[in-house]
Amino acid sequence: MTRLFHISDLHFGLEDRTALAWFEDCVRRETPDAVLITGDLTMRARSHEFAAACDWIDALDVPVTVEVGNHDLPYFNPLGRFFWPYERIRGIERLVERELDLAGVAVVPLKTTARAQWRLDWSKGWVTGRALAKTLAAIDALPSGTVTLVTAHHPLVEAGTRGRALTRGGEAALTALAARGVAAVLTGHVHDAFDLVKQTAAGPIRMIGAGTLSKRIRSTPPSFNELAVDGARIDVHVRNLEHVPTPDMQIDDVPPDALPPRAPGEPVAPVGAVPPIDPPVH
């Protein structure tokens, strides 16, 4: 059996120190096979936020893979956003979009962040053709019978909306992943946990979301997912300091507005519309 800890939305700058210390202790005592981090390491991609996040992640003494979230792109430095978006993450660059091979279980990244898009809300996801092609090529290279998990920051689809897609290209990406027998897509961004099955043209696929370890909570306390992978079976246990049962920690749908309320004094992210730029692929 493979045991994984799935965390997301650390938001250093508004991190929950108690929750982070608790998670560190869980990793130290229980030594999972890997920690999967699905984005938003920081609040505003500032140097001191990345320094704190990188130090914390580097201290986890287990294999780690990291996705980049929309909050990890520079907010107040347009030149940095477009030309050097990941300069401040170099402390853990080796972990970013890192594929993991865990004895029959593979973790494959899918980039969903973009430096700019043809819509005002750049916080939403975008699966470009190039990003999807890279992920599918990595999946196709795996040995037959490998249980494959895909990690991304944004949920690829949400429920109950028309024309306001949380992630552009997400529906097509989810269908392509289902066609390749991916066991689950693991994401963050929503700040509440979920475990849903999405029907696609290529068959069903599981969507698993992690909550947050920050102070930017939405409707549930800070938490992380513990995944137990045993053959084709994946059990998800949502763990939190308040000992709320897993069913009560999970939301029923991925909301179209996946952003939690702003904390007091938290600045509003700048928005704008410029021609889309395909994000770099590591």
Polypeptide structure, described:
The chain has 282 residues and is of the alpha/beta class. The protein has one domain (2-249): Purple Acid Phosphatase, chain A, domain 2. Helices cover 21% and strands 25% of the residues. It is built from six helices and 13 strands. It has a six-stranded mixed β-sheet with strand order 4-5-7-9-11-10. Strands 3-2-1-12-13 form a five-stranded mixed β-sheet. The chain starts with a strand and ends in a 33-residue tail after the last helix. Mean pLDDT is 85; it is low at 269-282.
CATH class: Alpha Beta
Question: How much helicity do the residues have?
Answer: 10-25%
Question: What is the CATH topology?
Answer: Purple Acid Phosphatase, chain A, domain 2
CATH architecture classification: 4-Layer Sandwich
Oligomer kind: single chain
- Average pLDDT, to the nearest integer? 85
| Helix and strand sequence | EHEHEHEEEHEEHEEEEEH
Count of domain modules: 1
Largest sheet: 6 strands, mixed
- Could you give the order of strands across the largest sheet? 4-5-7-9-11-10
Give the CATH superfamily: Metallo-dependent phosphatases
Which structural class do the helices and strands define?
alpha/beta
